[in-house]
């Protein structure tokens, strides 16, 4: 049956919305971004066009019981800080989470739409999508955003799911065309993604304990913030710290801010002693 056929009556909320109300999708407003990014029309030349806020660095790392998924809190507009407290890590359903990097508005909208998509599917079908199916569905959404990429509104997620059939956490990354790839150990994207990946590579090993995995994730974000101006590190003055979640067999567990704060305090003490 054709994907956008008038006769399509599948269980996908995203497919239905894209067919009947594309204007309500993050990437279906006639191919135009909500904030202009390209050359201004003649009547607006000379006017100041505000830049789009972008989320920066997010990552995921496997450990013995599941996956840690984490992100910094900074959003930037060009060379300025647009937001110091943006949320980039989202619970999608009971065994899924995603972190987003790219144009902040469309990223957050995609996360919310993905939440609705999985809830809608489960209500109609009576069973949740498989981990693989969820990863594929998110790839479809990223692919649908491709026209907006040419306007400068890039959306790149990391999807983490706990696969109950395999009894393990899984990490999926995407390219701008919706291509989906699975990572076996860890991954990071965003402006500080390369620095974060390098930091995780130096310390990663198979079957990490939870505390070690969380420490490595937070240290990687600290390293990224140290090297990349777009990534926000721990801010003890304002009380702003990266956010993290554990994706495990029992569900999605939030890492308490007090725990993150204490781990960063210990990390800074260690660095001071090291000179």
Folded structure, characterized:
There is one protein chain. With 275 residues, the chain is an alpha+beta fold. The protein has one domain (51-274): Aminohydrolase, N-terminal nucleophile (Ntn) domain (Glutamine Phosphoribosylpyrophosphate, subunit 1, domain 1, 4-Layer Sandwich). Helix content is 35%, strand content 25%. A hairpin with a 2-residue loop joins strand 4 and strand 5 (80-83). Helix 5 packs antiparallel against helix 6.
Outline the fold blueprint:
Layout: H1 13-20, E1 54-55, E2 58-63, E3 66-71, E4 75-77, E5 80-83, E6 89-93, E7 96-103, H2 104-125, H3 131-144, H4 146-149, E8 155-163, E9 168-174, E10 180-183, E11 186-189, H5 193-203, H6 210-227, E12 243-248, E13 251-254, H7 257-274
Antiparallel strand pairs: 1-4, 1-7, 2-3, 2-11, 3-12, 4-5, 6-7, 7-8, 8-9, 9-10, 12-13
Helix pairs in contact: 5-6
Distance between the termini: 65 Å
Radius of gyration: 19 Å
CATH superfamily: Aminohydrolase, N-terminal nucleophile (Ntn) domain
Largest sheet: 8 strands, antiparallel
Order of helices and strands: HEEEEEEEHHHEEEEHHEEH
Helix content: 25-40%
Share in β-strands: 15-25%
Q: How many domain regions?
A: 1
Count of DSSP-assigned helices: 7
- The count of DSSP E runs of length 2 or more, i.e. the number of strands, is 13
């Amino acid at each position: 049956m054709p994907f956008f056929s008038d006769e399509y009556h599948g269980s996908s909320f995203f497919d239905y919305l894209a067919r009947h109300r594309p204007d309500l999708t993050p990437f279906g407003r006639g191919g135009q971004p909500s904030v202009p990014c390209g050359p201004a029309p003649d009547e607006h030349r000379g006017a100041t066009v505000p830049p789009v806020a972008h989320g920066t660095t997010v990552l995921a790392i496997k450990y013995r019981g599941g996956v840690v998924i984490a992100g910094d809190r900074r959003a930037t507009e060009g060379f300025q800080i647009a937001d110091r407290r943006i949320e980039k890590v989202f619970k999608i359903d009971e065994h899924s989470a995603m972190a987003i990097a790219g144009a902040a508005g469309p990223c957050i909208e995609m996360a919310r739409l993905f939440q609705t998509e999985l809830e809608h599917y489960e209500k109609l079908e009576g069973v949740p999508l498989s981990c693989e199916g969820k990863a594929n569905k998110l790839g479809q959404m990223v692919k649908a955003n491709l026209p907006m990429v040419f306007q400068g509104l890039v959306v790149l997620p990391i999807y983490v799911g706990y696969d109950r059939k395999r009894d393990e956490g899984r990490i999926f990354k995407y390219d701008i065309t919706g291509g989906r790839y699975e990572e076996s150990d860890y991954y990071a994207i965003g402006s500080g993604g390369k620095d974060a990946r390098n930091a995780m590579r130096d310390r990663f090993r198979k079957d990490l304990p939870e505390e070690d995995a969380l420490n490595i994730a937070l240290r990687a974000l600290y390293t990224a913030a140290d090297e990349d101006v777009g990534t926000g590190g721990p801010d003890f003055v304002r009380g702003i710290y990266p956010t993290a979640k554990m994706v495990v067999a029992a569900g999605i567990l939030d890492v308490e801010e007090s725990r993150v704060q204490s781990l960063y305090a210990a990390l800074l003490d260690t660095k001071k002693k090291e000179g």
